Amino acid sequence: MTAFSTLALPLPLLASLEALGYTDMTPVQAQSLPPMLAGRDVVVRAQTGSGKTAAFGLSLLRSIDVDLIRLQALVLCPTRELADQVGKAIRKLAANIPNVKLLTLCGGMPLGPQLASLTHDPHIVVGTPGRVQEHLKKGSLHGGGIKVLVLDEADRMLDMGFTEAIDDIIGRIARHHQTLLFSATYPDGMRAISARVQRDPVEVAVDAPADRQPAIEQRFHEVEPAHKPDALAQLLAAAHDTDGATQQALVFCNMRREVDAVAQELDRRGYSALALHGDMEQRDRDEVLVRFKNHSCSVLVATDVAARGLDIVALPLVVCYDVAHDPETHTHRIGRTGRAGLRGLALTLCTPRERPRLEAVAALAGQPPPWRTLKLAPARGKTLHLAPMKTLVIDAGRRDKLRPGDILGALTGDAGLRAEDVGKIDVFAARAYVAIVRAHAGKALDRLRVGKVKGRNFRVRLLD
Fold first, then answer.
1. Which CATH number belongs to the domain containing residue 71 in this structure?
2. What is the pTM of this model?
3. Same domain, yes or no: 233 and 346
4. How many domains is the chain partitioned into structurally?
5. What is the pLDDT of residues 79-110, one digit of tens each?
6. Distance between CA atoms of 231 and 225, rounded to whole angstroms?
7. 463 CB-near residues (< 8 Å, 6+ apart)
C-alpha cells in the first residue's frame, strides 16, 4: 500500500482525500498518478471500480489555476450517466478548493441553460463528445486554454462511433495539452487513437489480483424465444431472499424496443420494474436511476449504453435477456455484480439462434458455458414482488438552498417518521428525491403536502 500523502499534492486535495476516507492508493492510482502529476501522457487499462476517476480527478485538479477564468480541463465520457457520475466525483475532490467552476455538458439536455452557464468560462467541463463538439463549434465553449484532456472509457466511445467527434474536438482545443486515456480494454482502435493524440505515453495496465476477482457465478439457460418472458419471471422469482424481500436485478436487452416490452411485461407480472435506454428524456433517465439506486425499483431493464456509468455496489443479480453482440460487452454486463467482495449471480438466456454469439463469449472466457436446465413451471396467479421503498419528489433543490438534512428534518419532525423509515435522499438543481419505506410513503406524502420544508411550502408528489 502507498499513501496519498507520499505524492506532491496540494494540501486542499489531501484534505479532501482525508474527508472521503481515502488514505492508501489503489494499484491503478499508484501506477498512474506519478506520471500524470509529472505532466506525461498516460494510457490506462483498468476495470470499473479500480479508482481511475479519482486518479485523473486529482491530476487535473492539481493543474487548475482557479484565478485564471478559462477552461483548463476537459473530460469526455461515452454517456450522460457516466459524465454525471464523474462530475460528482471531481466536485467531491475539489471540495476544499475555493471557486472551482465545473460544468457537465451532455446531449439530451436543453441547450439554453447550458449557454447561460457558459457566459463565464468554467475551469473544468465533463461531457459527452457530441454536446462538447457542438459548443466548441458554436463558440460558446473555448478550448484554447485546455491543459488536460481526459478520455474516460475511451473504448466505449470508439464502440459508439465517437471517433470523428473526438478528433474534431482535439482539433479545436489547445495544441499542447496533456492527454489521458482510460479504458477497460485495449483493442486496436484504442492503440490507433493513442498513436494519433498522445506523445510518448506511459502505459499502465492493472488487472485485479486473483484473490480480488469478482466472485460471480454464471449460469446459462437455453430457451425458445416465445418462452423468454416466462423464464425471466421465474428466475427473478427464485432470486428472492428467504424473508420474502425482492432482490434487485439488472436485466440487459440488446434493443431499446425490447427494453420497453420486457419492463412492461414484468410490471404486468407484479414487479417494480423500470426501463432505461437512450430514447428517454434526460430527466426521466435521472429519475429511473434515482429510483433504482434508492431501492424504489427492484428490476431495471436497460440497454448496454444506458447502463454505462451505473454504479451499484451491492447488486446481487444480472440477467442477460439477450446474448450480447460481442464477448467484451458480456464481460462488462456481468461485471455489474459481484463487486466490493460480495458474491454475484449472472444469468444468461440463450435462444438457439444466439448460440454463435455464446460461443464467442466462451472462447474469450477460455471455458465452456455452464449450462443449467430450466424447467418452466406452470403459470400461477399474479404475485407481487414490490420494491421496499417508494420515492417522493420535492419540486425544490440546490437552487432553493435545499439540503438533505432539511428534508430529513421535516420528515422526522412534523411528518412524524422515524429516521430508519427514510432512505436515500438525492438533491438536484431544481428537484429533490427521497426514498420512504413503502408502508409509510402515503403518510410522508400527506404530511409534507400540508407541512413545510425549511420553513417553506413546496410541491410534493409520489413517483409511481
1. 3.40.50.300
2. 0.64
3. yes
4. 3
5. 887 888 899 999 999 999 999 999 999 887 78
6. 10
7. 287, 291, 296, 390, 391, 392, 393, 433
